[in-house]
Amino acid sequence: MRELYKLELVRLVKELGNLEGLYIDQFYELGKDRFRFRVSGKGEKANLNCVLPYSMNRTDLVEVREDATNFTIAVRNRISGSKIKSIGLLNDDRIILVSLESKGEETKLILEMFGRGNMIIADSDMKIKLAYHNHDFADRSVRPGAVYMPPKNSSINAFDNKELAELEEELKLAEGKDAQLANYLNKRVGLGKMYVEEAIAMSKVDANSKIGDIGLDDYGSIFKNIKGVIDTCIETPQFLVYYKNGEMANFSMCSISRYAELESKKFESLEETLEFVYRNIGEAKQEKNEDEEKTVASIEKQMIILNDIDAEIKSNREMADYVMKNMHELNGIIDAARSNKGISVDGLKRISKRIEILSISMKTKSIRIKTEQ
């Protein structure tokens, strides 16, 4: 089955919104790219199923994995007991951003719902503390210690009528352009090709037409229908799973004309739809060679340990660089403390303006400073 389109993710975070105010009780890694969150609060209890990069939904199917992986323990240490403050999309893209709070500190849970998929935990400044998959790209790094940066988003905000109108005018002036209509519109609008093609079909226009061959009135109709598809899917959706020759072919949040002849099954919400679709896939994923699963799990554990070691080495190197850079002032602070055993933190602060002194203890003969990291 396919990944979620952005239009579907907008609807999904709307449905997940009533989880705000609940607390994360426990986290489980169920298998490769599959997780479960147990949440509760306000007299409610729920289990959230996450299949990267395909789904995030409440579930009645509770899988139990007896052994806690290193990743499971690392996640629990960072978010167990946290309150869910908000759930939304980051960068108007296919990235679910969950803001958590615990003991006055904010933590970000980031779910990349595209490509290979990823789960990332960052602090309030988006500095990464943990990543399920570590990556280095040309323009960003996803690994502990780096500041999380989402991929560049080349599409417009299709929920902004002004941006839609500007794109429509841009295309009307594109006389002679030979780009294929459906592909170009999908890239620029970014809602999901199936929904863009449905808006084109509703306008009685060939999706394979070239941009320069479309009449001005046709553009008006296409963009009107894009708005109509958005409104239907978000405000008055119809959740459908389509079958072809007895097998699931696709799912949608509104009636899709190309599937008009196929059998379909209706659901009450997108979460319920995803639960139905990906529960079956989850069960199929479990039918794997056990030795292969154990080998993969062992490799993943070792990679997590190595990544943690790399992060610690980097942190220690940064602290060593800071000490070397400020050695002269540090020696001055140490000399002052030795020569005046009753000196206070404020007294030491007057000696150095650049170094932030946190505490001094003559009993342990130690001075705590804040390093730049």
Describe this structure in words.
- This protein is an alpha+beta fold.
- The protein has three domains: 137 residues, ibrinogen binding protein from staphylococcus aureus fold (Roll); 125 residues, Helicase, Ruva Protein, domain 3, CATH 1.10.8; 76 residues, no CATH class.
- It is 38% helix and 25% strand.
- It is built from ten helices and 16 strands.
- The chain has a five-stranded antiparallel sheet with strand order 5-6-7-8-9, with helices on one face. It has a four-stranded antiparallel sheet with strand order 1-2-3-4. A three-stranded antiparallel sheet has the order 13-12-14.
- Strand 1 and strand 2 form a beta hairpin.
- Helix 4 crosses helix 5.
Describe what is shown at a glance.
The protein has about 375 residues and is an alpha+beta fold. It contains ten helices and 16 strands.
Notable characteristics:
Helicase, Ruva Protein, domain 3; 3 domains; four-stranded antiparallel β-sheet; five-stranded antiparallel β-sheet; ibrinogen binding protein from staphylococcus aureus fold; alpha+beta; 25% strand; 10 helices; 373 residues; 16 strands
List the SSEs and their pairings.
Layout: H1 6-16, E1 23-31, E2 34-41, E3 44-51, E4 55-58, H2 70-79, E5 83-89, E6 95-102, E7 105-112, E8 118-123, E9 128-131, E10 135-136, E11 141-142, H3 161-172, H4 181-189, H5 193-202, H6 216-235, E12 239-244, E13 247-252, E14 263-267, H7 270-285, H8 290-325, H9 327-339, H10 345-349, E15 356-361, E16 366-370
Antiparallel strand pairs: 1-2, 2-3, 3-4, 5-6, 6-7, 7-8, 8-9, 10-11, 12-13, 12-14, 15-16
Helix pairs in contact: 3-6, 4-5, 5-6
